[in-house]
Amino acid sequence: MTYVVNVEVSAKGDSLRDVKLKEQYIKLISSGKEAALERFRQICGDGYIGEFTMGGLLQAVVQIHTRSQSETETLAASLSGSFSMASGSASFSSSLKKLASSNEVQIWTFQRGGNGPIPLTAEEMAEKAAALPDAVKTAATPTQGAIFSYVTLLEEPSLPLADFAERERGLSYLAERLRKARDQEANVRYILDHPSEFYSEPTDLPQLATELKSLNDFTSVINAQANACTQSGGSCTVTEIPMPAPTVRPARR
Prior knowledge:
Blueprint: E1 2-15, H1 23-30, H2 34-44, E2 48-65, H3 69-79, H4 88-102, E3 104-112, H5 122-138, E4 141-148, H6 162-193, H7 204-231
Antiparallel strand pairs: 1-2, 2-3, 2-4
Helix pairs in contact: 4-5, 6-7
C-alpha cells in the first residue's frame, strides 16, 4: 500500500514599497532603440520581484509492504479513516507506528523550510508533519515570488515594453506544456521500469517505448522554442504542436 503525505504552510512575506526605476534605466527604455531595450533587459530582467510568499513544505511517500492481497485489503479498510485530514495527526502517527511494528515500511521524504533532523521512521515522519507549522515559523523559506512589470513604474505607459510581456506569456505557456509532458513521461517510465507491478500485455511495451520517444521529441521542440524566446530581443514566437497522446496504461497488480 502506498500513501502520500503533503503538508504545506504559507504566509505573506516581505514586499517592496515605493519602487522606482533609476534615471539611467529610464533613459535606456525611453530611447526606444532595440539595443538599448536589450541592454535594459540584461541588467534588470523582464520584471522585478515585488514580494515573496514564505512558508514550508513536507512531502512524503509511505510504502507499506504486505504479504497477501487479503492483508492489503484488510489493512486498507481498517486504516483508511486514520489517514484522513479529519482524524488528526495523533491518529495518523498511531496508525503508522502500528503498521511499522508488524510490516516493513519505507519512507521517502522531501522538505523545504523548517528545520530539524530528517525523519527516518514512520513515527518520526508523522510527528514531523504535525510539527511543520511551528517549525516554519522560525525557519520559513521563500516559496513563491510575485513578478511585476516595469510598465507599472513608468509615468509614460506607451514606452516600448510590450515585447517583455509577450515573452513572459510565451515562456509561461511553454513551461506548462513541458510540465505536462514530464508528468506523462514519468508515468510511462515507471511502467517500463517496474513491469512486475502491472498486468502488462506483450504488445504494451513497444507502444510505451514509442510514446516515450514521442515525448522526448516533443520536449526537445519545447526546449528549443524556450531557448529562442530567452535569447531573442523581446518577441517570443510559439509554434503550437500537439502533445503525444497516451497509449496503453496496464492495471496495477
